[in-house]
Design brief:
With 121 residues, this protein is mostly beta strands. 15% of the residues lie in helices and 45% in strands. The chain has a 5-stranded antiparallel beta sheet, with helices on one face. A hairpin with a 2-residue loop joins strand 2 and strand 3. The two termini are 24 Å apart.
């Protein structure tokens, strides 16, 4: 059985474990421009030559403070675009942001999940 992680400190620990796993698996690092309409952002990415991963904590001035996690197809030149984004709310689980962390009660394995909605996040 999976249990939703709701505590802010536990979410931060889960996010840090996820980042550590991704960065240790995809060891190449760069600072790149991640583009989306109508904006873009300079981010440190980790990549494996085929795909990239980036994350940013969005909390200052945000309506819904969250961890932004993105994965996309890697290209050596130009801006990168995300293929998949998982936004996990920091303070509370909300219907506005669809990402979440859950823990398997038996194995204590953490999962990054999405509620399946089409509203972004």
């Amino acid at each position: 059985m999976l249990t939703l992680i709701e505590d802010e400190n536990e979410k931060e620990l889960a996010q840090n474990q996820f980042m550590k796993l991704m960065r240790s698996s995809w060891r190449k690092k760069e600072h790149r421009e991640i583009a989306w309409r109508p904006s873009s952002r300079q981010c440190q990415i980790s990549h494996n030559g085929s795909f990239w991963f980036a994350n940013v904590r969005l909390d200052k001035g945000e309506k819904t403070p969250r961890f932004w996690n993105a994965v996309g197809e890697y290209r050596p030149n130009g801006n990168l675009q995300s293929t998949v984004e998982f936004n996990v709310p920091i303070e509370s689980n909300t219907t506005i942001v669809a990402g979440l962390f859950a823990r398997d009660d038996a194995t204590k394995t953490l999962y990054l999940m999405h509620d399946g909605s089409g509203r972004g996040g």
